[in-house]
Write a structure and sequence with these properties.
The protein has helices at about 15-25, 35-40, 45-55, 65-80, 100-110, 115-135, 155-160, 180-185, 200-210, 230-240, 260-280, 285-305, and strands at about 5, 30, 85, 140-145, 145-150, 165-170, 190-195, 215-220. The protein has about 300 residues and is of the alpha/beta class. Strand 1, helix 1 (about 15-25) and strand 2 form a beta-alpha-beta unit. Helix 3 crosses helix 4. The model has no long low-confidence stretch (mean pLDDT about 95).
């Protein structure tokens, strides 16, 4: 294993990563910037989290101070090897509000005076702000929408968030991403990796978007679709339109470390099974398939995540 990336809150001290750096251990273990606690108004302790963020960075709770605090935190993450951000929003909605409107919206969510629509609009605005920051600092942006998290209320109340009761939802990408893509879709220096739990969007929305916009890439099958059948459906539905090279190969997203070798092995077997079918049908030469197999297993993910 060449690289292991953890997922870390902007409020995390990253002391473990600093200790690893100072130990001169050769293993490459890097943080990933996950700003949900300070960009999602529905996250527990949202206002307190923002107060902690600005105090950590020497900023204030104005809109400008908040954005500056996020930029400073991203710099801190990058100094410890971070190459990517990760955003677990309920939807893929983006927005591009004028600065004065964004500032007023921020004031509302911070003071707890925003309704559900305004909270969603703020998350949408923050995806665009994160893309703007990624264009400046080079961090790769990952969006993981479409999960109704903590669906089992009793389980959530007993054990807390993110313990497995998460259910896929229909997800719109064409309309939802348009404000962000209007601003940054043609930027070749920006990389946004899209994931989905809504398989119905593979050929209808995701493949055409990734095939068209230079900044977009498709992440591998995620969660419920991280399985042999799910992987094959993904390849069959996106490759004809998006091609192989607008995907990022396979990167594992797990808390179960012992599953990592098996999951990578499954992904490589299913990719090779798909490539073998193309060779058998004379749609791809064997030498080409061998080259693509290596890229899907190794090269594309390193390039996509700037490793």
């Amino acid at each position: 294993m060449e690289v292991l990336a953890t997922t870390d809150s902007p409020l995390d001290s990253l002391a473990d990563h600093e200790a690893l750096r100072e130990s001169n251990w050769e293993a490459r273990i890097i943080p990933t910037f996950r700003p949900d606690p300070v960009v999602d108004p529905e996250f527990e302790g949202f206002a307190e989290n923002i107060t902690a963020l600005v105090e950590l960075t020497g900023e204030d709770t104005s809109w400008a101070g908040y954005l500056s605090a996020l930029r400073k935190t991203r710099i801190r993450f990058r100094a410890l090897g971070c190459t990517a951000t990760d955003h677990g929003h309920p939807t893929a909605r983006t927005a591009n509000l004028p600065p004065a409107e964004a500032a007023e919206l921020f004031r509302r969510v911070l003071t707890g005076n925003a309704d559900a629509q305004q909270q969603e609009l703020f998350r949408a605005q923050m995806l665009t702000e994160m893309a703007r920051m990624s264009l400046d600092d080079g961090l790769v942006m990952q969006i993981h929408p479409g999960s109704a998290r903590n669906h089992n209320r009793k389980l959530y109340e007993r054990y807390g968030r993110d313990v497995g009761a998460d259910i896929p939802m229909p997800t719109n990408y064409v309309d939802a991403l348009r404000p962000l893509l209007d601003q940054f879709g043609n930027e070749r220096e920006l990389t946004i990796i899209l994931f989905t739990l809504d398989e119905s969007t593979y050929s209808r929305e995701l493949a055409p978007l990734a095939g068209h916009y230079p900044c977009l890439r498709l992440g591998p099958p995620w969660w419920f679709h991280d399985s042999p059948e799910g992987m094959m459906r993904f390849r069959e539905r996106v490759t004809e339109t998006a091609g192989f090279y607008n995907t990022v190969g396979f990167n594992d997203d797990t808390r179960a470390f012992l599953s990592i070798p098996g999951r990578h092995d499954a992904a490589r077997r299913m990719d090779c099974a798909y490539l073998g079918k193309l060779v058998a049908e004379h749609r791809l030469e064997e030498e080409e398939a061998l080259e693509v197999a290596k890229d899907l297993a190794y090269t594309l993910v390193k390039k996509a995540y700037r490793l």
